Amino acid sequence: MEVDKGKGEAEETRKVAEADRDTVTLKSSDGKLFEVSKEAAARLSTVLAGMIAGGSIDDNGTDLKQIGSEALENVVDYCNKHANSIPSAALISSSISFNTAPFKEPEEWERKFVDRLSHDALFDLVEAANFLGMERLLDVTCHKISEMMKGKSPDQIREVFNIKNDYTKEELEEIRQELAWAFYDD
Amino acid sequence: MARGSQPRRRPATVVTHISSLPDDILREIFLRLPSLATLVRAALTCRAWRRAVASSPAFRSRFRALHRAPLLGHGGLPIFAAAHRRADPDVLAALRGGDFLLTSLMDGTLCIVRVTARGIYVWLPDDDSGGGNKWIRKNVLKYTDEMAALLHIVNFDTPNVVAVRDGFVYLVTYGGFVSFCLETWKLEKLLFPRYFGDYYYPYFVAWPLEELGLKEEVMVV
């Protein structure tokens, strides 16, 4: 662990030193420019990696018309934080699994990263992650949203996400009886 | 790039809402739900979500693979009748109490399992034996210290096997109720030790989800 930490810091120092050359500029749908580490962008986003490799990166700002400035800021923020984070022991796979989910649990900083977002910002970010082919960020954001549904009744889920119930009363009652088991506690 | 000079801003009145997410992303979210029960409840919030679940066979098989058979009853009180399609229960009844258990993997391959205090042994049919019913020992899992601790193996007591089905062995130990996957070689703790293990038996429910368009895909094999 000590060794890893030292390595992480050295990596960070190197990045800061090379920041001037090693970044790409991304432009949001509303014309704002953001700089992100080229290395992190290529590592975390398959789409950006492809653009970098294919030389379709524009020094004046690569247009990402599908992504608004708030979401792009979060994407860039995530890339930079990720570049500086040290993988925790939790990510090293163990021979024993206590749950069936093959998805890796978010790390503490990733949890905090999505926890501070409003619903709207979270939904925008999940779309941006999907668009940019950022598997890990997609994982973290989807995990966060699924947690908001966990252990809740349909009514409570509707309330959390402000969803309009478009089932009829009779329909719902019928389904509810058929699937009664799904309404026990998890 | 020229377009940059005319930024296309979202109208301020448009609020991003979960219903604006495409079905693909919605399904990615649903995949991470902890159980089939949560998925059902999510699908019952609105028609669009139900459609997102019902319209994708790929999603259903992934969800199934990630969640396996839902374990629903415990505490000695069967909440649901076990839904069996094969003769497994009879075979199991004949074999229960014996040292060896006959079961099958998810893909239907028969296998023999033996659980001991030292490890779990698995035999598979020997395809090279020219149709003869020979079994060869394929895998031996010697417990690691971590596994032994999870299974609460003390003084080489053999864990109590309560059920074997669909490639999973269900064990009751002092540590609680544990399942062991014969394919992934993973132990999973299902219930914590606040109850006495003797009262446990896993009940399975067929994927009942006619309502979600899943009628053709019964979970339990």
Could you walk me through the main structural features you see in this protein, from its secondary elements to its overall organization?
The complex is a heterodimer of chains A (186) and B (221). Chain A is mainly alpha-helical and 186 residues long. Chain A has one domain: Potassium Channel Kv1.1, Chain A, CATH 3.30.710. In chain A, 54% of the residues lie in helices and 6% in strands. In chain A, a hairpin with a 5-residue loop joins β1 and β2. Chain B is an alpha+beta fold. Chain B folds into 2 domains: 45 residues, no CATH class; 153 residues, no CATH class. Chain B has a 4-stranded antiparallel β-sheet. Chain B has a 4-stranded antiparallel β-sheet with strand order 5-6-7-8, with helices on one face. In chain B, a hairpin with a 3-residue loop joins β2 and β3. The N and C termini of chain B lie far apart (56 Å). In chain B, 30% of the residues are buried. The N terminus and C terminus of chain B are likely disordered. Chains A and B meet through α6, α7, α8 and α9 of A and α1, α2, α6 and β8 of B.
